Amino acid sequence: MSTTRPYPPGDRGPEPSGASGASQGGTPMTGEPTGGEHGTGEPGTGVAAPAASTGRQVRTLSFDGVSGVVPLARDFTRQALYAWGWLPAASADQRAAAEDVLLVVSELVTNACLHADGPEELHISCDRKVIRLEVTDRGSGQPAPRTPHRAGRPGGHGMFIVQRLCLDWGVVRTPGVTGKTVWAELGAPA
């Protein structure tokens, strides 16, 4: 699993500009709000934005000035999974896939709380095959699974869980900017 590639190998390449909530032309897209006060830009609000012509759905949640960020992130992600048809699950495999997404979101946001002074933003994008979770924080550390992994000991399991459940994961840093974005991708349910 990668911890340095900004995107997974294959023909997908870098995220299209639509994945950031902007259309291919660079103009901000609008969408239905999914939390807070109807997407008014207040902390803890989330805005949905369908990406232009890629079939990718995008949601972003800002954590600016809010507490209880882990349950907030899980609830926000659960709402997205319902909106995108992952929930309610029609089979045990679909339920397991949705639960894996919620667990990975919890682990990424918890790691940002414990090791990076808290998360700034959760960005979720989904196409027909892959859901991508991105947690942005101001931390300078490099997340990595602890080695050796000690299953019987408390703590230190977060990135091991992420590595085991995800197709791929990594870290993106912008030169000259404090912080990083930790991303993880999971396969859509069959």
Automatic annotation (TrEMBL):
Compositional bias annotation for Gly residues: 33-44
Name listed for the protein in its UniProt record: ATPase
Domain Histidine kinase/HSP90-like ATPase: 94-183
Source organism, top-level taxon: Bacteria
A Pfam family recorded for this sequence: HATPase_c_2
Record keywords, A-Z: Kinase, Serine/threonine-protein kinase, Transferase
One MF term in the entry's GO annotations: protein serine/threonine kinase activity
InterPro entries (alphabetical): Anti-sigma-factor_SerPK, HATPase_C_sf, HATPase_dom
Protein's UniProt keywords contain Plastid: no
Source species: Streptomyces fumanus
Coiled coil, from the record: none
CDD domains (UniProt xref): HATPase_RsbW-like
Biased composition (Pro residues): 1-11
Region (Disordered): 1-55, 137-156
